[in-house]
Write a structure and sequence with these properties.
heterodimer, A: alpha+beta, Ubiquitin-like (UB roll), DNA polymerase, domain 1, five-stranded mixed beta sheet, B: alpha+beta, Uridine Diphospho-n-acetylenolpyruvylglucosamine Reductase, domain 3, Enolase-like, domain 1, five-stranded antiparallel beta sheet, three-stranded parallel beta sheet, 12 helices, 15 strands, 35% helix, 23% strand, binds flavin-adenine dinucleotide, binds FE2/S2 (inorganic) cluster
Chain lengths: 162, 290
């Protein structure tokens, strides 16, 4: 039982987690042990979505994932959505639409929206609202976030910006 | 073989046998499925974590199968999967209920087995499973037993699961006819139900089945109301009179055993059941007094 460690695959690379407590959440391990501070911690009870990450093909709240149970799965965090120093299409759209205020909700929203657009390049407003219903934003009132999604969707469909 | 198992604090089970062996070794281990109930408590510090058996990747608990008029759902089936076309065509009310759960993130992780494991009066799959008289297959390293859902859930967050056991699958009949699940809460997403209601039809038998959620320690079948509606519907024309609808809604409200709590008062909950039951019936049958 001693020298326990387990391996998490984050953004395509294996990371060893050693000497951890069994009850640590994936969010905590990502932020505090592995140096991925992108996913944010606001509630630790699944209500806010600021900790959203993708595991395999699905977006989940990393605060509700037991880290030690997430071995041998592909974990994608906000850090993995674009190459170092570059902006993804969704990130750029957030800037263009002015969809970032305090920014605390932004990483979770970006992960959720990236996943939505991967599955549906032309989502209508209701689909977007339902997709982001688990990501709370206290600042923007969502209008500009909805706009950003449509900008990113259009650019993914290869449409030119007016 | 089980005796030789050396348990890590977190056992990621590869098979049903692997999980059952780990549970035999450590019957008090926390069974972890999607984690959406367990981790909330762990994060709050209200659930000590010593040994965990993670069952999220056991092939035998995934997916569903159809056997004649019965649908077998693996305990690991998620809400997102229940919303998919296949399951929603067989048990539409379960798919509707799934869509009201939490948020997409919660629905991707949370499972039907976890909803049963938690046995909360507000569990959104429970009313439909009670109305369908679902049968649970429960397994341990020493054997298997089947339990009807009303013998499994016995009180507020209390169920008949013994240490060393886990829920393998949930079996429900596939009925012919429309179904409706309705739920009331303060907003559309991320709400724990204040009152919920399911109404299922069995057109072959000219019968309805229904159940009230969140208005009692366990889901409640309003049998008098069910009988009244089954007998009052014109099944050939799919019609029902306003009088029968009113009587049905009143009997449903009478059957509720609600409490006052931070989510709503008992009186509000009883009123909500009256509204929901009439609404569900109106969505299924056309109101016609001719
Ligand atoms: C933000 C948020 C919103 C939510 N909204 C809703 C909602 O709208 N409606 C609703 O009904 N619920 C809701 N829930 C509660 C929760 O998502 C559900 O109860 C879910 O079904 C739990 O499933 P899980 O797989 O995550 O279970 P876990 O958390 O992994 O486990 C829950 C319990 O069941 C036991 N268990 C799990 N699987 C098995 C098995 N196969 N055999 C035996 N025991 C088992 C566990 O040991 C534990 O006691 C919400 C939770 C959160 C965090
Ligand atoms: S921190 Fe995970 S949902 Fe809020
Ligand atoms: S920008 Fe502040 S919470 Fe969304």
């Amino acid at each position: 039982m001693s020298n326990d460690f387990y391996t998490l695959n984050v953004n395509g690379e294996d990371h060893q987690v050693a000497d951890s407590w069994a009850g640590e959440s994936l969010l905590w391990v990502l932020r505090e042990r592995l140096g991925f501070p992108g996913a944010k911690n606001a509630c630790e009870e699944g209500e806010c979505g600021s900790c959203s990450v993708r595991i395999g093909e699905e977006v989940v709240c990393s605060c509700l994932v037991l880290a030690g149970s997430a071995t041998e799965q592909e974990i994608t965090t906000i850090e993995g959505l674009s190459a170092e120093g570059e902006l993804s299409d969704v990130q750029q759209a957030f800037i263009d639409a002015g969809a970032v205020q305090c920014g605390f909700c932004t990483p979770g929203l970006l992960v959720t929206i990236d996943d939505l657009l991967e599955k549906n390049e032309n989502p209508d407003d209701l689909t977007v609202r339902e997709a982001i219903s688990g990501n709370l934003c206290r600042c923007t009132g969502y209008g500009r976030i909805l706009e950003a999604v449509q900008i990113a969707a259009a650019s993914r469909r290869g449409e030119k910006r007016e | 073989m089980p005796a030789a198992l050396i348990l890590m604090p977190v056992t990621v089970a590869r098979s049903l046998d692997h999980a059952l062996a780990a549970l035999e070794e450590c019957p008090e281990a926390i069974i972890l499925a999607g984690g959406t109930d367990v981790m909330v408590q762990v994060n709050r510090g209200s659930m000590p974590v010593d040994q965990v058996v993670a069952i999220g990747r056991i092939p035998e608990l995934q997916g569903w199968s159809r056997e004649g008029d019965w649908l077998h759902l693996g305990a690991g089936v998620t809400y997102s999967e229940m919303m998919g076309e296949e399951i929603s065509s067989m048990v539409p009310a379960l798919a509707q209920a799934s869509r009201t759960v939490g948020s997409p993130q919660i629905r991707n992780a949370g499972t039907i087995g976890g909803n049963l494991g938690t046995s909360s009066p507000a569990g959104d799959t429970l009313p439909t499973l009670f109305a369908l008289e679902a049968v649970l297959t429960i397994r341990s390293s020493t054997g298997v037993r089947k339990l009807p859902i009303n013998q499994f859930i016995v009180g507020v967050k209390q169920n008949a699961l013994q240490p060393g056991e886990l829920i393998e699958k949930i079996s429900v009949p596939v009925l012919e006819g429309p179904q409706e699940f309705c739920k009331i809460g303060p907003r559309n997403a991320m709400v724990i139900s204040v009152a919920s209601f399911t109404l299922l039809t069995d057109v072959k038998e000219s019968q309805v089945r229904s159940c009230l959620g969140t208005v009692g320690p366990v889901p409640i079948r309003p049998t008098e109301a069910e009988n009244l509606l089954s007998n009052g519907v014109n099944w050939e024309k799919n019609k029902v009179s306003s009088e029968v609808l009113e009587a049905f809604a009143s009997l449903c409200a009478d059957a509720a055993q609600p409490i006052d709590d931070h989510r709503g008062s008992a009186a509000y909950r009883r009123h909500a059941i009256k509204i929901l039951s009439r609404r569900a019936a109106c969505r299924i049958f056309s109101e016609d007094n001719s």
